[in-house]
Write a structure and sequence with these properties.
The chain is mainly beta. Helix content is 9%, strand content 39%. The strands form four sheets. Strands 1, 2, 4, 5, 6, 7, 9 and 10 form an eight-stranded antiparallel sheet that branches. Strands 12-18-17-14-15 form a five-stranded mixed sheet, with no helix packed on it. A three-stranded antiparallel sheet has the order 11-13-16, with no helix packed on it. The longest helix is centred in the first third of the chain and has 11 residues.
């Protein structure tokens, strides 16, 4: 707490210089809420429980960074560039670890492929879980904010493709969303180390998609489940929603509208907290053929009656 108080003093009094001189740019080539999202924030609870800087549970015990996630392994394979969040010198790198390797094989190398940047003044940033063979900087190299460092991967202790970005000052983990530890459950933090602070989301939707049956979860995570067209002879029409950060009691509202109105609409209540999950609803074909034309699927995540996120997608039946 003394260390936090000193940092708060620096940020509030001598702090404008510190806040202006050391700020973070966004570390990925993606747009939050569209083709990437924040899966987990830094854990701010000093005990065995877990709480992010806004007093919600979008984190886990002892998590010391921010996880910027991709929607699928297909997106990872397509390539998403990791960029330096601030000017610095490469302190060290690692590459050569396989993406998606069994967790038992990564003991002692949980960060996977990645690197550390030394920004001076006691500040360091670390980039973890990068794609095999993608790290493109070397020890001692000087980089500027926005320079390409490699690509997002799933190496090390990673159950999904993401960049784990951690920040340290004199060896102590710092939350860039609330470096002076001023946030409360009812008020946003007074300071941030981001040039443009990403908006806080306590959970949300990763994707919406369609299928002719309940898709395999592995296909959803892989990015291969969604069918943009289906034949009129399909045995069923199914709409699914892929979510993150859901809590017990959250509602996924799924609906499918066809050329002549509603095909199906259903609320699904989440029965437990889940870092990632999917739910699907559908209707079996009873007529000879489905009506051809455009269909729209809508998935909404609700919490305590309030809308957290909504996504829509379209399906063509031929």
């Amino acid at each position: 707490m003394i260390r936090r108080a000193l940092l708060a003093l620096l940020l509030s009094s001598a702090g404008p210089a510190l806040a202006e001189d050391f700020q973070l740019g966004f570390p990925l080539d993606c747009t939050l809420g569209q083709d990437c999202y924040i899966q987990q924030y830094m854990d701010r609870d000093p005990g065995p429980e877990a709480s992010d800087y806004r007093c919600f549970g979008l984190t886990y015990d002892s998590h010391k960074g921010t996880d910027f996630a991709l929607p699928s392994t297909a997106a990872m394979r397509a390539g998403v560039t990791v960029r330096a969040a601030a000017d610095g010198v490469v302190k060290g790198t690692r590459d050569g670890m396989t993406d998606g390797a069994p967790l038992a094989e990564v003991s002692g190398r949980e960060c996977g492929n990645g690197l550390v940047l030394d920004h001076g003044g006691g500040w360091e940033s670390q980039y973890c879980h990068m794609k095999l063979g993608s790290v493109q900087v070397i020890q001692g190299q000087r980089v500027a904010t926005g320079d390409a460092l490699g690509q997002v991967g799933q190496s090390g202790q990673a159950e999904f493709p993401h960049l784990h970005l951690s920040l340290r000052h004199n060896g102590e983990p710092i939350d860039p969303f609330d470096p002076a530890d001023t946030a409360t459950c009812d008020a946003a933090p007074k300071t941030s180390l981001w040039q443009d602070t990403p908006p806080y989301r306590p959970g949300g939707l990763i994707s919406v998609g369609f299928s002719e049956g309940i898709p395999a979860y592995s296909d959803i995570k892989g990015g291969t489940a969604n069918r943009q067209t289906l034949p009129a002879t399909a045995p069923a029409l199914v709409v699914y929603g892929y979510s993150y950060g859901t809590r017990k009691g959250d509602i996924l509202r799924l609906s499918l509208q066809g050329p002549r109105g509603e095909v199906i609409a259903q609320d699904v209540v989440m029965d437990r907290p889940q870092a990632q999950a999917f739910r699907a609803v559908g209707k079996k074909r009873r007529a000879r053929l489905w009506r051809t034309g455009e269909y729209e699927g809508t998935v909404t995540l609700l919490r305590d009656g309030a809308v957290i996120d909504t996504r829509r997608g379209s399906l063509t039946v031929r």
